[in-house]
Amino acid sequence: QAFFCLLLCIPWGSSCPPSCQCTERAGAKAVLCSSRHLEEIPKDIPRDAVFLKLDANSITRIPSNAFRHLSHLEEIDLSRNAIEKIDGAAFKGVAAGLRTLDLSSNCIRSIPKEALLALNAKLRLANNPWHCECALQEVLWEARLDPDSVRDITCHTAPREEYVGKPLLQVLDAGVNFCSVRQRTMDVAMFVAMFGWFAMVIVYVVCYVRHNREGACRHGDYLKPLPSTQAHAE
């Protein structure tokens, strides 16, 4: 915070989004857009920006390639917004150099794991209404989360009521595996589908055999009243 305060003291001479303030210190360029009532990410952010603060706005979505042209970004602060949806390619183009990504205190229930697992940045995901599921579990185990906020990732909803309101880390430490639950569900669904298909085949075979038997019986009944070839010979 002190660093950003210092950055505020030095204005930029280059272009800057009209709703933001752009500053520079020791070659580090920052775009400060905090509390500007923004509903989406500005599209005219300078390409050489290193720090981007978009906190305390009304942004609801991070679309694909939202930061693709900002390859110098090291820190993105999107905390305290109303973000509900994050596209899988939302952070494409900034994965290599990004050091910090703050998504805390939003409205995020789920997130494509590919959006975060490609990042080397320290992630802050606390204080969101998370739906505890396999993708979130994989993010927790594989992504680089801020250790100070990981315990504030809480299950707002979950497959079982007993997990609701508990920190995800606590649920996982108790031996719960949301990915195995999903796998079992898929296995059951596949079994039901195969059983249904097998039942349809059996019904078809039974109907086919019955139809052929009835046809044979009708054919036999038709031949009975006909005179035999032996009678004609006599």
UniProtKB/TrEMBL annotation:
Extent of the signal sequence: 1-22
GO cellular component: plasma membrane
Residue stretches spanning the membrane: 188-209
Stretches assigned to the LRRNT domain: 15-51
Domain of life of the source: Eukaryota
Keyword vocabulary terms for this entry: Leucine-rich repeat, Membrane, Repeat, Signal, Transmembrane, Transmembrane helix
Main location: membrane
A matching Pfam family: LRRNT
Subcellular location: Membrane
Lipid bilayer topology: Single-pass membrane protein
Similarity comment: family membership: Belongs to the LRRC3 family.
Protein name: Leucine-rich repeat-containing protein 3
Species assigned in the record: Chaetorhynchus papuensis
Recorded name of the encoding gene: Lrrc3
